[in-house]
């Protein structure tokens, strides 16, 4: 079977490509440039000719994926502006929504063999304000708050709401589209909602400027001479990029996953928890800030991932394994360490 993966050059996507190739699929990746495609071609040369790429320069064009989709059996749609800093919220919302709708339209028009489209959404789509401690977020939650904030404040909205709204609106657009066209299509949709993703980097990362946003945040927190004073505060929930890739691959193979959303998350983390895990690793890891060893996380919100564990059968890696392997990779690639 052939899987089309959009945004194949991205941090998460390259791990998904690897997982799919390892499982024996043919993979066709869309990239925005030949340079990015050639990097992947070279990375996966052991799998030649099962990995191919096509250039889709702008997914906002209505027929962007019309050629790429021909002959494909399943789709992983990961391409989306994954930036936590934007000027105008529409700079991230428009491409996120248009890319999602355009891939679905192309499947409807020219992908008669496609049975399933797996979309990379995000845990931020569940972060609806709530009361209680710990705060538990599940797939039943929807972050309308960020969408409302963007609507009310537009360009002046707090930064995090821009990206969050783009993910909510893109995922909602997919579900509404599927509902509207349900009598005309032969495929279903699954959405995967990763928490903050860390772990090994297979994407090209020769310099700091090539790091994706979450790898960059990890780098900054470890490379720092002076740990942030709020290191004990919860930063987010974490998930390993290899487990996110597994969740996507399983989403193709588990029949009853169709029509469902799945949170992919391991544990809540603070930078202190990451420092402690790295500093007590065996073999030891050098040059990691100490902070205040053992200090507990000061507040806690949890993305509940039982559904992914039970239905997709994904077991999430430990914080230590993820942190150690990510740091190893960043140092090995000599990202200006
Ligand atoms: P990357 O920035 O590495 O990947 C983003 C991918 O989307 C790249 O392939 C990029 O292409 C492509 N892309 C971005 N903007 C556009 C656009 N306007 N048109 C076409 N393609 C575009 O980040 P991640 O791997 O982290 O993100 C991948 C997906 O995972 C995204 O959907 C993101 O929202 C989601 N996600 C990420 C999380 C994380 O913690 N990292 C958590 C939850 C969800 P190019 O390489 O050419 O720039």
From TrEMBL:
The keyword Magnesium does not apply. It comes from the Eukaryota. Keywords: Oxidoreductase. It holds the Pfam family Epimerase. The keyword DNA repair does not apply. One of its GO terms (molecular function) is oxidoreductase activity, acting on the CH-OH group of donors, NAD or NADP as acceptor. Residues 3-258 form the NAD-dependent epimerase/dehydratase domain. Belongs to the NAD(P)-dependent epimerase/dehydratase family. Dihydroflavonol-4-reductase subfamily. PANTHER family: NAD DEPENDENT EPIMERASE/DEHYDRATASE, STEROL-4-ALPHA-CARBOXYLATE 3-DEHYDROGENASE, DECARBOXYLATING. This is NAD-dependent epimerase/dehydratase domain-containing protein. It comes from Botryobasidium botryosum (strain FD-172 SS1).
């Amino acid at each position: 079977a052939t899987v089309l993966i959009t945004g194949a050059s991205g941090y998460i996507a390259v791990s998904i490509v690897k997982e799919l190739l390892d499982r024996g699929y043919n993979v066709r990746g869309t990239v925005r440039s030949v340079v990015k495609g050639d990097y992947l071609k070279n990375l996966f040369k052991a799998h030649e000719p099962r990995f191919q790429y096509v250039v889709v320069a702008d997914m906002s064009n209505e027929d962007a994926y019309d050629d790429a989709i021909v002959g494909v059996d399943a789709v992983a749609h990961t391409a989306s502006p994954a930036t936590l800093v934007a000027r105008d919220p529409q700079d991230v919302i428009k491409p996120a929504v248009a890319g999602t709708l355009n891939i679905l339209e192309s499947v409807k028009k020219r992908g008669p063999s496609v049975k399933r489209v797996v979309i990379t959404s995000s845990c931020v789509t569940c972060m609806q304000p709530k009361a209680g401690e710990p705060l538990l977020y599940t797939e039943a939650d929807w972050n309308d708050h960020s969408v409302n904030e963007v609507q009310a404040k537009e360009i002046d909205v707090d930064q995090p709401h821009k990206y969050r709204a783009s993910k909510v609106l893109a995922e909602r657009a997919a579900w509404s589209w599927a509902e509207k066209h349900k009598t005309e299509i032969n495929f279903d949709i699954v959405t995967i909602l990763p928490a903050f993703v860390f772990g090994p980097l297979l994407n090209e990362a020769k310099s700091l400027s090539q790091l994706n946003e979450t790898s960059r945040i990890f780098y900054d927190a470890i490379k720092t001479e002076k740990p942030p004073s709020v290191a004990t505060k919860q930063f987010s929930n974490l998930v390993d990029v290899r487990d996110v890739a597994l969740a996507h691959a399983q989403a193709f193979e588990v029949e009853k996953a169709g029509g469902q959303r799945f949170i992919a998350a391991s544990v809540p983390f603070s930078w202190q928890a990451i420092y402690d895990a790295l500093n007590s690793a065996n073999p030891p890891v050098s040059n990691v800030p100490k902070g205040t060893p053992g200090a507990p996380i000061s507040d806690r919100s949890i993305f509940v991932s039982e559904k992914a564990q039970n239905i997709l059968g994904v077991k999430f890696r430990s914080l230590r394994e993820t942190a150690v392997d990510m740091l190893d990779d960043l140092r090995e690639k000599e990202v200006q360490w």
